[in-house]
Amino acid sequence: MTRRTLWKIVTSLAALLFIFFGTGFAQDPRETCIENFGYLGCDAEGNPIPPQQPNNRVVLYWTALALSETKMKPGASHGQNSAESAKQEALASCRRNGPTDCKILTYASNRCLALALGSNGVHYGYSPADDRQSAAAGAMKQCRSAGGANCTVITSPCAADDPKWATPLPLPTGLPASPVDPKVVGTWQLLVNPGYWIWRVAANGTYEFHSEAMDGARTNAGTFTASNGKYKLHAINLTWDDEGTYTFQGPDTMLGNGKLGPGTWHRIVPREH
Fold first, then answer.
1. Looking at the domain assignment, is residue 49 inside a domain?
2. Which of 38, 89, 137, 237 is the most exposed place for a label (fewest CB within 10 A)?
3. pTM for the complete prediction?
4. Angle at alpha carbon of residue 139, lines to 137 and 143, rounded to 5°
């Protein structure tokens, strides 16, 4: 049996299944593309790409958001190889927070998603976009339009994020500017065997933190002030405040000492101008 004949049989079976079972949650035609039988992947319309056209390959990664509307507990997934695995991982993530009525809000391939919750506990918004910051802006807008008070982005996974650790959050927007020592502004990493903590400080007095150490440290973002060797940090997506001191051992090495004890941070991205 030739590959062409085999492909015709497979596509015929797929068409029959479509007739009997409908489209379900299929938001993206690429989800239904069969990537086996020698094909490398799918193009933007969901058509299989033959092996002789490797330069046209579209590598698909998937992300999903889930939510329990009764408990307002979220779940998310990223870096998954199929839509189904992304949805199942997001549901499992939501259920680990306690509720049993978790549902999928949305899912996407090769895009970012964001979920924002209002502090009044009943309103939320979510949005897809091509980048994390745009997805967050869309989720915030939808949350506010729904009547949410003090809406906050609590998760913003991108499909291509490494599934080994939690995804970053975007830098918060719409917060009052705070004084920040220009020498502290930038992206820093702290060795935490067997990986790193990543901390981004912006010139407008906001920050985001995430762990790439598989240690369970929770992603957070919020406000940050630093001057005269002292700093204060306030997370807006979870209950966490910290304050302490900092000194420099060179322009790109900073020793911080706060609630978690001393740590030596190394700059990996220069400060913003």
1. no
2. 38
3. 0.77
4. 120
